Amino acid sequence: MQMLLTVMVVVQMLSALVMIGLVLIQHGKGADMGASFGSGASGSLFGASGSANFLSRSTGVCAAIFFACTLALAYFGNLRASTGGGESILERAVPASTAASAAPASQIPGAASAVAPVVVPQAPAVEASGAAQIPAK
After folding, report:
1. What is the DSSP letter of 94?
2. The 3-state secondary structure of 14-71, one letter per residue
């Protein structure tokens, strides 16, 4: 099962990268605007309003592969999570009282036995705007 998930992730990543590359090398719709007014041929076989060319068809195929892999990974991820005992992540978390009592500060190597309080210097109070510095008329 893990091998299948790994292959799906690899196929999804490759299809995403190929799709990005194909989109970047295609011409925009505005690039063929001159062809509709008779100033040249467009990139497709049947003219400016003809069928889609090779790049747009292959982009659609890559998008279909990408979406199929995404749906399959979501399905298998949900399937694996539901068979994990039926509990949420919060239910599996260690309570804070247990975690704090498990390792007191005296057991941490290099920790001082007496912990000095941390003093944070206070900034002087300053007005948010310079309204006091503006002379009145």
Report:
1. P
2. HHHHHHHHHHHHCCCHHHHHHHHCCCCCCCCCCCCCCCCCHHHHHHHHHHHHHHHHHH
94: pLDDT strictly greater than 70: no
31-71 per-position pLDDT tens digit: 656 555 655 555 555 455 444 688 889 999 999 999 999 99
Helix (H, G, I), strand (E, B) or coil at 132: helix
**Residue ranges covered by each domain of the chain:** 54-81
Residues in the chain: 137
Angle between helices 2-25 and 54-82 (to 10 degrees): 150
Residues 6 or more apart whose Cβ sits within 8 Å of residue 111: 105
pTM (two decimals): 0.48
- Read out DSSP for 62-104? HHHHHHHHHHHHHHHHHHHHHTS-S--HHHHSPPHHHHHHHS-
> How far is C-alpha 26 from the chain's CA centre?
25
User: By the 8 A CB rule, do 70 and 12 touch?
Assistant: yes
Query: CA–CA separation, 35 vs 37, rounded Å?
Result: 5
129 alpha-carbon distance from chain centroid: 39
Does residue 12 surpass a pLDDT of 90? yes
